[in-house]
Amino acid sequence: MNKSSPEGYKASEIRMMFFIWRETRHNERGVTVSGLSEVMEVTSPTVTPLIRGMEKKELVFRYNDQEDRRVVRVKLTEKGEEVTRAAMEKYSSRFKGLCEHLGAEKVEQLTELLDQVYHYLEELLIQDSHKS
């Protein structure tokens, strides 16, 4: 992922912008810092410096929620939208190239295997949560 990120941006920044972009589609007001940390599965203190760095690069902006001033929301700037769109196009192109390289039969096999891996890991998480 690092090597396929648009030039000048860290993989963590691209990942964050994907999450912000996706979450903003569900809520036009933007995503909260706690919401970002939850969806990225990291702590808020981990997310905050990343957001600050992205603000300096003019990729995102933070603001206080109009309904609850204690809540800080994050949205992509126009530049952030452009970088996210470029990253999506790059990833999509690479994925399409991979599918063409593998061929339909191997793509089907890979899909089935990844589905099995996902369900196995999901089951482990459920078992671990019952132990806690």
UniProtKB/TrEMBL annotation:
Residue ranges of every copy of the HTH marR-type domain listed in the record: 1-119
SUPFAM superfamilies given in the database record: Winged helix' DNA-binding domain
Transcription regulation keyword on record: yes
Entries under PROSITE patterns matching the protein: HTH_MARR_2
Keyword set, alphabetical order: DNA-binding, Transcription, Transcription regulation
PANTHER family: TRANSCRIPTIONAL REGULATOR, MARR, TRANSCRIPTIONAL REPRESSOR OF EMRAB OPERON
Descriptive protein name: MarR family winged helix-turn-helix transcriptional regulator
Native species: Paenibacillus puldeungensis
